[in-house]
Amino acid sequence: MDALVQYLPDPSQRSPPPIIAHYMKRLHNSASASKPRPDTTLNALPMLLVFKILFDSHWGALTLARVYSGNVVAGAQISNWTRQDEQIEGNENVGRVLQINGDSYTALRSAGPGCIVALTSLQSTRTGDVLGPPGNMFRVTETAKTPQGILANDHLDSASEQDLGFYVPTPVVHAALEPRSVSAIRGLERSSFILRSSKSGCWSAFVALH
User: Fold this and answer.
1) Closest CA relative to residue 111, chosen from 150, 63, 151
2) For 2-152, which CATH class?
3) What residue ranges do the domains of the chain occupy?
4) How far apart are the first and last CA of the chain?
């Protein structure tokens, strides 16, 4: 990961991915309608793209993300903008910011643009999600169309997931799984972790009454 950070272009040296550019544009438009705090500049606000969810026996779920702007700080609140768009509460607290080197993890106080880090304690984040500043960073204005404020403004370019490069087709293979005992249900529940790491699957539960 250090090699990737060293040799890949800094985010400021090239255009961000379409999905990051989309949310940054929404952030700039919301800032023009809702005056930001004096000590806050748009460039200082965190913006991250999650590219993988890993599961470690010690740390649990690790959210691997690249920082495109601002700094992500251990213990700070961050918002899952993708989940906010789905009308799901997206504010979460970052546990630790970790730098991964093989099987070792180094805790960092913060990480800036270009860094690839692993975040702990994020419960609802999935692969492909965009993490940004909490919704209360800006005052909600009358132009906001829903209570979610800046995260619920119109999709400025009517961009779809396919346009933004994160479109995943509907699965065409289906399977039914039935646990043989109550103790086996826990193992089945763990399969939900796989769905967080890949957007290509979905599941639903059916409880049969006898």
Assistant:
1) 63
2) mainly beta
3) 2-152
4) 52
